[in-house]
């Protein structure tokens, strides 16, 4: 393989990793907006966001190749993998200690029986 083939493969892998990472971050943002309560919203923020950041930084590492910049990116990834889950846990635990309740779906309202018909309505139906 010559250098052009390697650069083309590297560019394709970088593009796939960057696209997938951006996709996960967008999905996490939508999850934060769409989920009903605090505990459900913190889940995409802690999981998909961390994985999206990892894939984006991995794409940058592949693009850069092995260099001092890649070493810095590995340190950033290690920090993100430690800090994001720890912060998510701390926030959820603090909310639980403060008494934040889980969301519960409201029970369905009972169907009201049909109101009784008056005598006038019964006589007008037959005519």
Automatic annotation (TrEMBL):
Q: Where are the transmembrane segments?
A: 12-35, 55-83
Record Pfam families: PhaG_MnhG_YufB
What stretch or stretches form a coiled coil here? Answer: none
Region (Disordered): which ranges? 101-127
Query: What keywords sit in the KW lines?
Result: Membrane, Transmembrane, Transmembrane helix
What are the Pro residues biased-composition ranges? Answer: 107-116
UniProt-listed InterPro entries: PhaG_MnhG_YufB (IPR005133)
MF terms per GO, please? sodium:proton antiporter activity
- UniProt name for this protein: Uncharacterized protein
């Amino acid at each position: 393989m010559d250098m052009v083939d390697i650069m083309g493969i590297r560019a394709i892998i970088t593009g796939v990793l960057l696209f997938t990472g951006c996709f996960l971050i967008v999905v996490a943002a939508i999850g934060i907006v769409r989920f009903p309560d605090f505990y459900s919203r913190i889940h995409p923020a802690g999981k998909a966001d961390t994985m999206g950041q990892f894939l984006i930084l991995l794409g940058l590492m592949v693009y850069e190749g092995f260099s001092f910049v890649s070493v810095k990116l590995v340190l950033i990834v290690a920090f993100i993998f430690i800090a994001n889950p720890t912060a998510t846990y701390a926030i959820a635990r603090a909310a639980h200690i403060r008494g934040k309740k889980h969301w519960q779906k409201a029970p369905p309202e009972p169907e009201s029986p049909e109101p009784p018909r008056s005598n006038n309505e019964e006589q007008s139906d037959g005519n």
